[in-house]
Amino acid sequence: MTYGEGLLLGIVQGLTEFLPISSSGHLVVAGAVVGLRTPGVLVEVVLHVATLVSVLIVYRKELIALARGLRQGARSAWGYVGLLAVGTVPAAIAGLALGDLVARAFESLPAVGVHFLLTGTVLWSSRFVSGGEGNRPTAVGAGGIGMAQALALLPGISRSGTTVTAALWLGVT
After folding, report:
1. How far apart are CA 87 and CA 163, in angstroms?
2. Count of alpha carbons within 13 Å of 21, Cβ hemisphere only?
3. What is the pLDDT of residue 131?
4. How many alpha carbons fall within 13 Å on the CB side of residue 54?
5. DSSP 127-143
6. In this predicted model, what pLDDT tens digit does every residue of 10-65 receive, in sequence order?
7. Exposed/middle/buried for 110, CB within 10 Å: 0-12, 13-18, 19+?
């Protein structure tokens, strides 16, 4: 991969990561359009790590406050971390159990197209969910959101789109 190709993928990642349109799916499509054969899922992982670093920088004050709350034994901080863990476990298990399947999906443009359609359907379904009353997430809700996040391991399925829609379905607003 050339520096120019890496730059192109970085731009695609940066423009699509925070929209409900699957940055990983768009990376696969962009690679196919320019004839780029990436070395498996490695490039996507590196780009997502870069995104994680940017998120940690943007939310550093909130993360520091959360760490202080944990050190002080604040129940709300521990509850929040617990919900984050419950919401993360399904994706971690799916990633470990289905790693080869997920890696193969990154090499299949038709699979990405089907996943884009699934993302569109999920987003469309959110139109039919009532606004809710601002319910706080529960462990069951966090688990449901985590399962939606697990689906987003596949390129073309938007992590933000599926998790936000799952939260709406579960009454978390």
Report:
1. 10
2. 12
3. 64
4. 11
5. GGS-----BPP-HHHHH
6. 888 888 888 888 888 888 888 888 887 665 567 777 877 888 898 899 999 999 99
7. exposed
